[in-house]
Write a structure and sequence with these properties.
632 residues, alpha/beta, Rossmann fold, 3 domains, 9-stranded mixed sheet, 7-stranded mixed sheet, extended
Length: 632
């Protein structure tokens, strides 16, 4: 028993010593860490050769072999240190060393053995034992990798100590014991200051049950999550399955909602470009994770080909779609980016954001109203944009029912002003951002967007510019959309108001929609109306209930849902194509094209040329009544 107590004390002291080493290492600057590792390697590679000689001769080393080695020791050390530097042995963060760092150490050991052999045997050196060179290869690997791994071991012991010292840590279960789950665990262990204590994994692969990752056990499958979370008094669940789709996330959300446990997740696999996980990427589950949509992929080379080096104008740049257009265009190295809007605050904030992220980007903020024809012409005359994305529009359906003339001035005449100048001042491409409400329009807003599509189609062929429209449904999180409204209602304690229990809408995230808009803009030859594949329509009632659950409440118990009835101009179901249109596939599987769209350009031209709002309103009302009769 006394011997066992001594062993335990010795282990404790050893652990404390290594932990102290880890804390000391953390306090060093990056330059100091590199110098320490350089000094360590310089000593280690020379001791390895000495140790090899001692082993070869059982401790009785003839002095001439030491003399032979002393001659080459300095150049050997210099060559090895230079090689180690170029192999990246001084650029890795060894506190987090993994297989890649071990491979670098193996390469370093191989280079050191080759360097030693060349220096000793070229020119020939009499009798120096070749076995020492082979031993140097093996022991150099142990010295290089082992010395650095000791840093990780010290760091790990420090993390364990910090975890032990936490007061009331958040007990976390990680769903998914794959690569993403392991990276999530390591990231949480590296940041004990966040107060998380991983207590277990669940994974649907039964073969993993009972295994451990960094000391944390796999306790069962996702079917066991509820029981495990209750037994371990879990506070939080992190879903680490970025490629698994939405079904597992939905199931976990329901389990956690019943337990009152908070749930977080990682970005989708298409967002984790570098394949790594950081604390900042672990976020709360959002509606996007539950919609069941496949990730959007675009041909960046094709997009960059028509935007790189161009003068790009975005109207409505301060809005949800316009601002995201500016962000994604900025990454594609345009010659300049022109951000036009009539709301100064939004454009100012966007300019600050882009100025921080893209310092070299030449950008210009323009405060202007697209209804001001003289001002818009001055913008085109001054800046000569070569690519135009027209996102400026009035979009709120009930408001435009009350003020139809404003919808006409902006959505029709404003579009005409920008398109006229694009044709007049030599733009190469013009892309109109349209909406599914333009299909069989029942509202003023939808009818004006339909007229804008017809207008842009009519411009094609009148100038070298390629005029196209891109039509899609609702975007999650845009200003005035249902999601922020529901969130605000939930924050107030309810009720959440849904206009109709059967109402559905198409939804897409803003970055997805904009990426596809950019792709479609590069595909268009002129005159097309492109449709973005939006997936299946989503029930607004379901959307409201999921948001309530994600907020930690139970629908109809904690937060009431009330139905208020459809608003003026509002449809219960939206469509992406009208009755007289057919959609045909394009080269991109998420982009379609509407065929047989009737431009009615001659009728529109007669009304629009005099800029007669009354006549336009009359035509617009006729379109709405005609569609109402068709859809009865």
């Amino acid at each position: 028993m006394a011997v066992r107590q001594i062993d335990v004390k010795a282990k404790v002291k050893m652990g404390q010593a290594v932990e102290a080493q880890g804390r000391l290492w953390d306090r060093l600057s990056p330059v100091a860490k590199k110098l320490v590792m350089l000094a360590y390697d310089a000593v280690a590679i020379n001791l390895v050769v000495t140790f090899g000689l001692i082993l070869r001769f059982d401790g009785d080393v003839p002095w001439r072999y030491f003399q032979q080695y002393f001659v080459v020791a300095a150049p050997y050390t210099i060559v090895c240190l230079i090689a180690f530097y170029f192999l990246g042995l001084y650029n890795s963060i060894w506190e987090y060393a993994s297989v890649d760092e071990a491979l670098a150490a193996a390469k370093g050991a191989g280079v050191s053995a080759v360097a030693l052999a060349m220096l000793l045997y070229l020119p020939p050196t009499h009798g120096f034992p070749r076995s020492v060179v082979l031993m140097a290869l093996f022991f150099n690997f142990l010295a290089l990798a082992g010395g650095r791994m000791s840093i990780r071991i010290a760091r790990r012991l420090q993390v364990v100590a910090d975890m032990r010292d936490l007061r009331d840590p958040k007990r976390v279960i990680i769903v998914g014991a794959g690569q993403a789950g392991a990276m999530t665990l390591r990231e949480l262990q590296r940041h004990p200051e966040l107060g998380y204590k991983p207590v277990g994994f669940v994974d649907d692969d039964p073969r993993k049950r009972g295994l451990r990752i960094n000391g944390v056990p796999v306790l069962g499958t996702s079917d066991d999550l509820k029981t495990i979370a209750q037994r371990l008094a879990c506070n939080e669940v992190i879903v680490a399955m970025p490629a698994a789709g939405t079904a597992p996330v939905r199931r976990v959300v329901q389990e956690c909602a019943a337990l009152g446990v908070k749930i977080r997740t990682l970005p989708g696999v298409y967002e984790l470009i570098d394949g790594k996980v950081t604390v900042s990427q672990i976020r709360e589950v959002s509606l996007e994770d539950l919609l069941g949509r496949e990730p959007v992929r675009v041909n960046l080379a094709e997009i960059a080909a028509y935007l790189e080096g161009e003068r790009v104008l975005v109207t409505g740049a301060g809005g949800s779609i316009g601002s995201e257009l500016c962000r994604q265009i900025a990454r594609l190295r345009p010659e300049s980016l022109l951000m036009l809007d009539n709301h100064e605050n939004e454009v100012y904030e966007l300019d600050l954001e882009l100025g921080t992220s893209y310092i070299a980007l030449k950008r210009t903020s323009i405060i202007a109203d697209i209804r001001d024809r003289t001002k818009i012409e001055n913008v085109f005359r001054t800046f000569r944009p070569t690519v135009v994305f027209h996102a400026a529009a009035h979009k709120h359906v009930p408001l435009m029912e009350a003020y139809p003339e404003e919808a006409i001035k902006t959505n029709v005449y404003g579009t005409k002003n920008v398109a006229d100048m694009a044709a007049r001042y030599g733009a190469k491409r013009f892309v109109l951002i349209s909406t599914d409400k333009a299909v069989n329009p029942k509202s003023v807003m939808g009818a004006t967007k339909r007229m804008a599509e017809m207008l842009i189609r009519g411009y094609n062929g009148s100038a070298p510019c390629r005029f196209v429209s891109v039509r899609f449904g609702n975007v999650l999180g845009s200003a005035g959309s249902v999601v922020p409204i529901f969130k605000a209602q939930i924050a107030r304690g309810g009720p959440v108001t849904v206009t109709h229990p059967e109402m559905t809408r198409y939804f897409m995230t803003i970055p997805e929609a904009v990426a596809l808009v950019l792709q479609a803009g590069g595909m268009g030859e002129g005159g097309e109306v492109f449709l973005l594949e939006m997936g299946k329509p989503v029930s607004i009632d379901w959307l409201a209930r999921q948001l309530i659950r994600l907020s930690g409440f139970t629908p109809d118990r904690d937060i009431k849902i009330t139905y208020t009835g459809t608003r003026p101009g509002e449809k219960v179901h939206e469509k992406l194509v009208s009755g007289e249109e057919v959609h045909v596939p394009t080269s991109h599987d998420r982009i379609y094209m509407a065929q047989n769209l009737e431009a009615s350009w001659s009728d529109l031209k007669e009304v629009l040329e005099p800029l007669n709002t009354v006549s336009t309103l009359s035509l617009l009302r006729g379109v709405i009544e005609e569609n109402a009769a068709m859809t009865k």
